[in-house]
Write a structure and sequence with these properties.
The structure holds 2 protein chains of 2 kinds.
Chain A (H helix, E strand, L loop, with lengths): L5 E4 L1 E4 L6 H4 L19 H4 L21 E4 L11 H9 L3 E4 L4 H8 L4 E4 L2 H13 L3 E4 L4 E3 L5 E3 L4 H9 L3 H8 L1 H14 L9 H5 L1 H5 L1
Parallel strand pairs in A: 2-3, 3-4, 4-5
Antiparallel strand pairs in A: 1-6, 6-7, 7-8
Chain B lengths: L5 H7 L2 E4 L5 E4 L2 E4 L5 H9 L10 E4 L17 H16 L2 E3 L9 H8 L7 E4 L13 E4 L2 H10 L1 E4 L3 E8 L8 H12 L7 E6 L1 H4 L3 H9 L8 E3 L4 H7 L8 H12 L11 E6 L6 E3 L7 E3 L13 H14 L14 E4 L1 H4 L2 H11 L9 E4 L4 H9 L2 H8 L2 E2 L20 E4 L14 E4 L2 H10 L13
Parallel strand pairs in B: 3-4, 3-6, 4-5, 6-7, 9-10, 9-12, 10-11, 15-16, 15-18, 16-17, 18-19
Antiparallel strand pairs in B: 1-2, 2-8, 13-14
Helix pairs in contact in B: 2-5, 6-8, 13-15, 13-16
The chains are: A alpha/beta, B alpha/beta.
Chain lengths: 216, 470
C-alpha cells in the first residue's frame, strides 16, 4: 500500500452534506473488473451532463483537477460498501478527504488504500473549507497530525493510532496478520470449534446441501 | 461477571486477541461472496500467492448483475457476463460453493443466507455489501465490508476491528393495520438522521419488536446502515428458533439443542448499559414515503413536500433545495399528488414472501394505472417458488405487474432493470440516492403495501384509503 506521510496540494471544496457512494461512483460502473482507471468515473454524473458535456463541477477545472485533497460536507461516503468509490478517488489523485463525518465503510476502505479520511468538525472545518475555496495549497501532515492553512494557521487533528500507523508505513495488513497472528488464530479457532461446533460447516452440512453442484 | 449487551457477548466470543492500540482481531465465521465486491479480493490473493484458508466459511452467488428475465438463456456477451464468469472461475479455483442463477437456491445474498440457515445467532458474518446488517435480525454480528476486507477474510478468517458503541432502539406500542416495519425504520431514520447511528451497533427491542416476524426483523436490521450503523441486531427468541429449525445448514439433533441453549443466553443482560438510547412509539405511526435523495428525507404520506424557506439552518436548507431540484418537486405540494411512472417491489429490504403477500393483498382484483410500469422481483428463487405455489404470481400478472426472477434488480440498477432519466418510481428498496435506480431516475421509498397502492392509483397514496378490493 502507498504510504501517506505528508501532502501539500490545492484542495477541492465540495460544500455539500450526505454525498453518498452512488454519487461518488455510480453503480453501473461496478461492472468493471479492475481497480485501475476508475478515476474517469469519479462523480460521473456531477462532472458531465446528460449530453456528455463537462459541467462546472469543482474537479473539472484547474487547479482543482489536480487536487490531492477534497474538503466535503458531513456524512461523506455514506451508503454502499463499494471500495470502487475509494479506488476512483485515489485513481483521480485524491489522497485525503476532510469532512465532519464519514460513512463508516467508506472510511474503513480509505485506510486500506493509502487514503486519509480526516474527521474535522464545526468552525475549524469551515475555516478549512474557506481556505480550500481560496485556491491556495494546504498541507496535511499525518506525522505531526496537523493541517496547515495558506495563512500559516496550523490545525491539529485526532486519528485512530492504529490507522495512522498503517498509513504512515503503508502497511500490508493481511501480511501482518499472517506473519504475527497466525498461531493465535489457530488456537482461537480450535477453541471456538469446540465451544460452538455448529458454526463450522465442514461437518457434512455444506457437502449435503451442494452434493448436486459438487458432483456436476 | 460484568453485565453485557447482545453485541458485546457476540463480540467477546469472537475476539482472537486484543491489541495495545484498542483494536481487536475478530474471528469471522461466515462470508457471503458476490460478484461485485469479490473479483479484486480474489485477484489480491493470487497476486500475493496467498491461500483461501477456510472454503467452508463461504458461499457465493451472483445477485447484482444478473438479469431478472430470460434466466434460462446464457448471459449476453458483455460486462455482466464477464463479471459473473469471473466469480464462477474464482469459486472453482478456490473451492467455494457457487449458486448459479438457474438454481432453486439462487437469490440475493441477504435473502438466501437466512433461508439456507447459513445465518445463525451468535455468529459473525460479513459480505462485501452494506446491507449485510440484515443478518443481525438473528442476533448475528454482521456487517458490510469493502473488497480489501473480503480479501483479508479469505486469507486470515479475521478482521482487525474496533468495537462499536451500542445504541438501544426500543419500539413501544403496536402497529395499526396498513402500517408495517418499513414505516418504522423509515420513521426512525427520519428522526435520528442518516448518520445518527454512525459508530454504533444498534439493538432493536421492545414490545413492538417482539411481535415482529423474522422477515420483518430482517427489514428492520437491513436498513440500519441507512441510519449510518453497520450493525443492527435483535436478540434471538422463540420466533428465531422456529424460523431456523430444519433449514438446510441449521444444526441438527443434539447440536441443535446445544446451539439453542447457547442462543438463549445471548440477549442483553437486564442491567446492561447502552451508550445511547432511542425510544419510538409505533402506535400512531402512519405509512411513510421518502421525498428527497436520502432515506432520512422521509415523511408521513399525509404530509406535504417540505418548504426549504422555513428551514433556518443554511446547510439543511441547501440540502432540501438540492433534493427537491433533483426530485423535481414543489415545496408545499401534497405528497399524495406525486404521480409515478414505475413501481418496484423487491430487494434485500422487501423482497421476501411476506412482502409479496402484502403487496398482493392490495392489488388483488385490481389493475395498475395505465401510466404505470410495475415489476415484482422476488428476493430469491425460494420466495418465487413459494409465491407461485400460493398463486401470487397470477395476482401480480393479472393486475398488470411483470413477475420476474430473483436478484437485486432495480434496487441498485447494475443489471438491465433501470429507470430512464426523469422517470419516477415508487420503490420498496432501501436507497433513494441520486441515480440509484438508473441515471437521472427518481426514487420514493415505501413499504410493499404502499408501493402496491401507488401502482393502482398512479400516484403516492395512503394504502389505507384504498380499502378492501374484495
Amino acid at each position: 500500500m502507498q504510504k501517506f506521510t505528508k501532502i501539500t496540494s490545492v484542495a477541492a471544496a465540495l460544500r455539500e452534506a450526505h454525498v453518498d457512494t452512488d454519487v461518488i461512483f455510480p453503480a453501473r460502473f461496478l461492472l468493471l473488473l479492475d481497480k485501475a482507471g476508475l478515476g474517469k468515473h469519479l462523480f460521473h454524473e456531477r462532472r458531465q451532463g446528460p449530453d456528455g458535456i463537462k459541467t462546472d463541477f469543482v474537479l473539472n477545472s484547474p487547479p482543482f483537477d489536480k487536487a490531492e485533497i477534497l474538503v466535503a460536507g458531513a456524512n461523506f461516503g455514506s451508503g454502499s460498501s463499494r471500495e470502487q468509490a475509494v479506488w476512483a478517488l485515489t485513481d483521480f489523485g485524491i489522497r485525503c478527504v476532510i469532512a465532519p463525518s464519514f460513512g463508516e465503510i467508506f472510511q474503513s476502505n480509505c485506510f486500506k488504500n493509502g487514503a486519509l479520511p480526516l474527521v474535522i468538525q464545526g468552525e475549524t472545518h469551515e475555516r478549512i473549507m474557506r481556505a480550500a475555496e481560496g485556491g491556495n495549497p494546504l498541507t496535511v501532515d499525518l506525522e505531526a497530525q496537523t493541517v496547515e492553512l495558506p495563512d500559516g494557521e496550523t490545525i491539529g487533528f485526532e486519528i485512530d493510532p492504529y490507522r495512522r500507523h498503517t498509513l504512515m508505513l503503508g502497511l500490508d495488513e493481511i501480511g501482518s496478520i499472517l506473519a504475527d497472528d497466525a498461531d493465535d488464530i489457530a488456537t482461537f479457532e480450535a477453541r471456538h470449534r469446540s465451544s460452538q461446533p455448529w458454526l463450522f460447516l465442514d461437518d457434512g452440512r455444506l457437502e449435503r446441501l451442494f452434493a448436486d453442484t459438487r458432483s456436476s | 461477571m460484568t453485565v453485557k449487551t447482545l453485541y458485546e457477548k457476540v463480540w467477546q466470543s469472537h475476539v482472537v486477541k486484543d491489541y495495545d492500540d484498542g483494536t481487536s482481531l475478530l474471528y469471522i465465521d461466515r462470508h457471503l461472496v458476490q460478484e461485485i465486491s469479490s473479483p479484486q479480493a480474489f485477484s489480491g490473493l493470487t497476486a500475493q500467492n496467498r491461500q483461501l484458508v477456510r472454503p467452508a466459511a463461504h458461499i457465493a452467488v451472483a445477485d447484482h448483475a444478473v438479469p431478472t428475465r430470460n434466466r434460462n438463456m446464457p448471459l449476453a456477451e458483455g460486462l455482466a457476463s464477464r463479471l459473473v464468469g469471473r466469480l464462477i472461475e474464482n469459486c472453482e479455483q478456490f473451492g467455494i460453493d457457487y449458486i448459479s442463477m438457474t438454481d432453486d437456491r439462487h437469490g440475493i445474498v441477504h435473502v438466501i443466507g437466512p433461508e439456507l440457515g447459513f445465518t445463525l445467532p451468535g455468529a459473525t458474518l460479513v459480505c462485501g455489501d452494506s446491507h449485510t446488517s440484515t443478518h443481525g435480525a438473528f442476533g448475528t454480528i454482521s456487517f458490510g465490508i469493502g473488497a480489501s476486507e473480503c480479501e483479508c477474510v479469505f486469507a486470515t478468517q479475521t478482521l482487525r476491528q474496533r468495537k462499536q458503541k451500542t445504541m438501544r432502539v426500543t419500539l413501544n406500542g403496536a402497529l395499526q393495520p396498513g402500517v408495517s416495519v418499513k414505516d418504522i425504520i423509515l420513521a426512525l431514520i427520519a428522526r435520528i438522521g442518516t448518520n445518527g447511528g454512525v459508530g454504533y451497533a444498534i439493538e432493536y427491542t421492545g414490545p413492538a419488536m417482539a411481535t415482529l416476524s423474522m422477515e420483518a426483523r430482517m427489514t428492520l436490521c437491513n436498513m440500519s446502515i441507512e441510519a449510518g450503523s453497520r450493525v443492527g441486531m435483535v436478540a434471538p427468541d422463540e420466533t428465531t428458533f422456529a424460523y431456523l429449525e430444519g433449514r438446510p445448514l441449521s444444526p441438527e439433533g443434539e447440536a441443535w439443542d446445544a446451539a439453542v441453549a447457547h442462543w438463549r443466553d445471548l440477549g442483553s443482560d437486564p442491567d446492561a448499559v447502552f451508550d445511547a438510547e432511542v425510544e419510538l412509539d409505533v402506535s400512531g405511526l402512519a405509512p411513510h414515503v421518502s421525498w428527497g435523495t436520502n432515506p432520512g428525507e422521509t415523511s408521513p404520506v399525509s404530509d406535504r413536500v417540505p418548504d426549504p424557506a422555513t428551514e433556518t439552518d443554511s446547510a439543511k436548507r441547501a440540502k432540501i433545495e438540492r433534493s427537491l431540484a433533483y426530485m423535481d418537486l414543489k415545496p408545499g405540494m401534497p405528497l399524495e399528488d406525486i404521480a409515478i411512472d414505475h413501481v418496484f417491489i423487491g430487494s434485500c429490504t422487501n423482497g421476501r414472501l411476506e412482502d409479496m403477500r402484502s403487496a398482493a393483498e392490495v392489488i388483488k382484483g385490481r389493475r395498475i394505472a395505465p401510466t404505470v410500469t410495475a415489476i415484482a422481483v422476488p428476493g430469491s428463487a425460494g420466495v418465487r417458488l413459494q409465491a407461485e405455489a400460493e398463486g401470487l404470481d397470477r395476482v401480480f400478472t393479472d393486475a398488470g405487474f411483470e413477475w420476474r426472477g430473483s436478484g437485486c434488480s432495480m434496487c441498485v440498477a447494475v443489471n438491465d432493470d433501470r429507470l430512464k432519466p426523469g422517470e419516477r418510481c415508487a420503490s420498496t428498496s432501501n436507497r433513494n440516492f441520486e441515480g440509484r435506480q438508473g441515471q437521472g431516475g427518481r426514487t420514493h421509498l415505501m413499504s410493499p403495501a404502499m408501493a402496491a397502492a401507488a401502482a393502482i392509483a398512479g400516484h403516492l397514496i395512503d394504502v389505507r384509503k384504498l380499502g378492501s378490493s374484495n
